[in-house]
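User: What would this chain look like folded?
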Amino acid sequence: MAHPQIAAFARLANGQVEPVRRIEGQTTRLSRTMHGIAYDNVADRIIVPAQFSQSILSFRGDAAGEEPPVRHIQGPHTGLRRPDRLAVDPIRQEIFVSDGGVLVFPADANGDVAPIRVIRGPDTLLGDGGGGPIAVDPVTGTVIVSTRRRLLMFDVAANGNVKPLRVISGPDTEGGMYAAAYNGLVFARTASNAIGVWSVNDNGTVPARFKIGQGVNVETRGVTIDPKNQSVIATDKDLNAVLTWRVPEVFAQATGTRTN
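Assistant: Here's the prediction, encoded as structure tokens.
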């Protein structure tokens, strides 16, 4: 049985290669059933939700071995129930946790702390489940939450029972998605397991502007981006692989302007 760990690979790694380091062991407080991970490139922190312990763990960016988290959000005041996905706004230094709504914590929060904002209620269209994949585009000030049929977009400062600014739906968005965002672009898994690309300005029944990995991906379980190298990275459960595409033509569409 696989044990809980965070494995780091060289950016240009290819084929059956060993990770350059691992975060693992009892003192890390990592547990099974962790489906989300985020990196804060300003504070140099790796942040993961731990569903079984109802907590958020933050590690040093170069952590390795049996190293404890530097911060640990947990306790009855946090409102965490089944934290499964999260995203980081490195500009505003906030953590957005998808957990029966969207809970927002300061990036330096530690211990039994209450969220500073909560997006929740019937008008949000988020439902009351464990939480869908979530992404933050700090440049346009947009939070994107993907459900099994829609992409919901909110302002980063949204709080309470607020309606989404925009909703993207249609055949491409059906089937449950994993999301990332960058400079006005939204990356999310499509119904065919490709990685679709939309604009944060899109609204309504809108097809993906690009589809990456169509016919290659089998069961996409994670999406992230490497803007510096104009690459999109996905994990595939059935292939048991990490797949990387360099797509400069996609990143050329970035707007870099606030839309709301």
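Residues 152 and 167 are 5 Å apart (CA to CA). If you want, I can go into more detail on any region.
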